[in-house]
Amino acid sequence: MTLFVAGKIGGCFGLKGYVKFYPASGDLARTETLRDVFIGASEQAALPYVVEDVIVRPSSVVMKFSGIDDRTAVEKLRNNLLFVEEAKAKAPPKGSFFIHDIVGCEIWDTDGRLVGTVEEILKFPAQDIWSVRTSMGAFLLPAVKEFVRKVDLKNRKITVQMIEGLEQG
Q: Would the pTM count as exceeding 0.70?
């Protein structure tokens, strides 16, 4: 069974075992159908849970898991990743990608120079930001069409248009 990250568990929400949930996709409504999930610091450490309730708010999601009924129990889940089985996942909308598909891809500039590797994706309201590890350090790359020219998941290669000042390190 292959798992992938659907998001991250945040802190407590209220007193009855609800948690703040930060979905990886940015599409809050996609979380409404989550039921059988796995929670842990890594895919290997993840344990199964059943989603009992999901509340999608205008800018956030809160959820409750069966058997997690108070703030103390929620604290054990805080800052862990929430995984779903790949076979049960909805495909992302056209032009969007799963986080696990992007992390680890090589970044190449339009001149054919290897820039670095995507090590993390940061979620922001306006767009995702990719943290790119280079031989000189890391820099942040906005994941927008002005920079990202081509995503080749089969070859784990992303071509980007670099501009002066974007790459630091």
A: no
